[in-house]
Amino acid sequence: MQPLRLTLKGFRGIRDGLGLDEITLDLERLADGAELIAIAGPNGSGKSTIMDNLVPYLGLQSRASMPATGGFSYYEHVYLPESLKDLTWAHEGRCYRSQIVIRVSGRRRTEAFLHMLDDGGRWSPVTLEDGTISDGRVETYTRCVESICGSAETFFTSVFAAQGKRQLSTYRNAEIKTLLADLLGQEEIQALGQKAAETARLLKAGLATLRQELAAVDAEDQHLEAARRKLDGAGDRVSAADRAKRSTQSALEAAQTGHARVVVEREQSRATDARRAQLMAERQSNLAGAAQAQSALDVQERAEHQRLERLDQRVANRLQQERSRRQALTQSRQRCLAALAEAGAVRRAERRLPLAQRVQALLGARTLACREQVHQLTQCQGAVRLAEQRAAAIERDAGRAALKAEELARRFGLTGEVPCAGTDLQGRCKLLADAREAQTLIPNAQAQVARLVSEKSEVQRELIDARRRCGALAGAPHALARAEVREAVARERANRLSVVRSKAQACAQAQATLVEIEQELQALGLQASEGAAAETIDERAERQQIAAARKAIEAQRGQQARQTEAALARLDQALATLPPAFDEQQAARAARALGAAKEALAAAERAMLTAVRESQQLEEVSKQSARLGERRESLRARCARVEDELGNWNLFARCMSNDGLIALAIDDAGPALSALANDLLLACYGPRFTVSIRTLLETAKGEQKEGFDIVVHDGDTGDSKSVGMMSGGERTLVELCLTRAIALYLARNTGRRYTTLFTDEADGALDPQRKRMFMAMKREVLRLGGYEREYFISQTPELTAMADAVIDVDALKADACDVDRGVSMA
Predict the structure, then answer these.
(1) How far is CA 734 from CA 324, 633, 787, in A?
(2) Is the pLDDT of residue 568 over 60?
(3) Domain boundaries, the chain
(4) What is the pLDDT of residues 574-620, one digit of tens each?
(5) How far from 707 is each of 172, 177, 737, CA to CA, in Å?
(6) Which of 120, 356, 420, 595 has the smallest number of CB atoms closer than 10 Å to its CB?
(7) How would you classify the pairing of strands 805-808 and 36-40?
């Protein structure tokens, strides 16, 4: 991109700096083949306004908050109701014209037009391949300009160095990678990544909706399952209710027949009731006498039975004591056997413990030795630091001593130059007295210098020896860590063996106890085999007495029973000859049975209706559950498909992101960018600084993470540090070289070539020598990149004088009609 002609109307910077409402620059005539073109003038004269408008992009870059059109608004920088920027420029053999009209009267509005000069010499609106036409809207103008010249971020990072431009070292990881991706032409990958991320976002939202719908289906299914469980068995209940209804109908008919029969029988039973009452009274009297006799025999029987129970209890208590003792001995025997089961491990621990303790002692000694080496390493490092401090102090003292010796020599040299030397005035001449005093001090100064040189050599030898000892002990911390780990393992093994060995006494005691228990168990077993559970003689005699007494009681009971049975048989025979008595309860039962049968039939009919209704409800619930199951399976299948696709799209979006393929592309381009920047540094500033680009940074934990850093190696000090840690002037040098290296990389590798560079007061932090190197770097960039020219602004007259052509804005202010008066060829 090369500016040819610029017209500005209504810009505050031009009005405030030059006092003009409108200015026109014929840059093609002013440049006239010059490579370096300086725009000169005092502060506030509108230089940056002119520089910012030499490019077709919207905005004033030196006043924008970000390197793109989104961080700027024209309305604060124009004052006429209708302001204009008219720029004619060339790019890749084509001529273009940018016209930007800013209206601030009434409703604010900005129109931007981009035209191209065709082969017939006519201006026509720019039309892109996708059909976009520059129709005056800012959006279409921006798309057309970026389609021709590339994105604004790329242009203002590599080609246009605006005043107060944000340095690369201040960019965050995502920002610098987005910028470098645009520089490397990764727009298609970025677009794919953005589309993949948007697709993943939409899939995630759809998946959440599907999961909510599936949860609603599950809740509805649980509700239907609860209803189905409640109605389960409704068909069986219908059949059972039908059978119950038929059964209750039969029962009602039977109850009605029985009730009629009972009513007839009650009327026929009145005659025999008196005779039956008499016989029953006699029979009751016999039963009472028999019951009284039986009661007396029962008392005797209970007394003998209680004696027998007490005897059985005594025998059972004796047997229970023997069983309890045997059980206690068995449990003690099991505990002893459990303790003896560890005897083998105890013996092994007794054999291995001494060896483990010796190993622990040896490893402890080794750990102490390693700690001593680490202590020696610390002392050596302290000695190195002390020697370095002494060397620095000696250097300072040596410098002061050398300066003092030179001063004394200069003062002594005045002896032959003083006019009063050899005259009568030399005794009173203060200069000669000072020179003679210097003569007496020179030997001491020279001796001090020699002494400091000797001390410096001695300190250097001590420093070398201390560093050698530090190198020999460099592995001591690692060896100490390894020795401490091995010592801890040995200590744990010795402690474990010591714990096992402590069980030896318990095993011996268990062996002795086991012998005693076995003997006692054998004795108890012998007693049991000899009939220890049999009764004693006294117990056997008492049992025989009880049996004889109970036998006599049984005999009396039998005799009494036979007498009672004979009397009752006679009375029962008389009662048997009588017709059976009518049972009034039978009539009541028949009446109750009839009422119950009627109620049972009504209940059966109600149960039948309920069962039929539940059966119909169960059938409907089953149909709903089947439909819901089909819907749930469909939703689950859709969720599974969406989850699979979501994983694929997330992976694809990450691969297409700044930390994926774009990071790999940046890694591939990093060496080339570094090489170009180092070539510029070497050609202009010498071999002191070299740069490298890193996209993987080390965290505090020693892990690798995605990032971005520009590391500068200082050849004079041998140190490497981030560009952000350098001084302001050094950082400016490195940043400028790296920025121009990006422009060279674009020209060589991406096919995006600009013929003109722009720099606005980038040399402010440089010293005079670095400023001259800065100009040499500009010419080297023009040579390496094949650029035709560079417009730059500098407040350093020496740099302005080194330009091939100078545009003096003061001359433009003096004569607005003849802009050529503001141009002087260098």
Answers:
(1) 98, 64, 21
(2) yes
(3) 2-159+797-825, 273-339+521-577, 344-501, 660-730
(4) 777 877 766 677 777 778 888 888 888 888 878 888 777 777 777 77
(5) 8, 9, 21
(6) 120
(7) parallel
